[in-house]
């Protein structure tokens, strides 16, 4: 039976909302509050608040890079993997990497996958060698 992983620390990135960001920027512009004190008061990272204040970007977007496949194609890939598992063919990591590479090739997407091994992602054996 697999172990259930429990995170040791709480997720601290992106815990602020658009409303708190707007309130913080309003207080910086109109109330004369410094960026540092507004960051502490509204619990927003200082550099995030500084960057959003300078660029007038009030919208909270996704964290990290977007998916190479796109949301719809990523859902298709995950449904395929789950269907294979439900039918009694659980896929290994290498199987998923090969399927992802072939999926990207069939969709004619620009990718940075390894074309010699025809696998997506990085090779774990090369990292620890």
Provide the descriptors you would attach to this structure in a database record.
129 residues, mainly alpha, 6 helices, elongated
The first-to-last residue Cα distance is 30 Å
Number of strands: 0
How many strands, which pairing sense, and closed or not: the largest β-sheet? none
Gross morphology is elongated
Structural class comes to: mainly alpha
CA radius of gyration: 22 Å
Helical residue percent? Answer: 40-55%
The averaged pLDDT comes out at 84
Low-confidence stretches: none
Q: Return the string of H and E elements.
A: HHHHHH
% residues in beta strands: under 5%
Count of DSSP helices? 6
GO cellular component, one term: nucleus
GO molecular function: DNA binding
Pfam families: HTH_psq (PF05225)
Subcellular location: Nucleus
Detailed description of the structure:
With 129 residues, the protein is mostly helical. 50% of the residues lie in helices and 0% in strands. It has six helices and no strands. It has helices spanning 18-30, 35-42, 46-55, 71-86, 93-106, 124-127. The radius of gyration is 22 Å and the shape is elongated. The two termini are 30 Å apart.
What's the short version?
The protein has helices spanning 18-30, 35-42, 46-55, 71-86, 93-106, 124-127.
Chain-wise SSE layout:
Blueprint: H1 18-30, H2 35-42, H3 46-55, H4 71-86, H5 93-106, H6 124-127
């Amino acid at each position: 039976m697999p172990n259930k992983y429990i995170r040791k620390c709480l997720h601290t990135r992106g815990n602020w909302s658009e409303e708190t960001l707007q309130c913080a920027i309003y207080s910086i512009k109109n109330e004369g509050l410094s960026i540092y004190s507004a960051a502490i008061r509204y619990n927003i990272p200082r550099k995030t608040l500084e960057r959003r204040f300078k660029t007038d970007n009030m919208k909270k977007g996704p964290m990290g890079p977007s998916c190479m496949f796109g949301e719809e194609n990523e859902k298709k890939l995950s449904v395929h993997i789950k269907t294979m598992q439900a039918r009694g063919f659980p896929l290994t990591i290498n199987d998923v990497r090969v399927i992802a590479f072939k999926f990207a090739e069939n969709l004619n997407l620009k990718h940075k996958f390894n074309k010699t091994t025809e696998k997506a992602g990085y090779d774990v054996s090369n990292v620890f060698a």
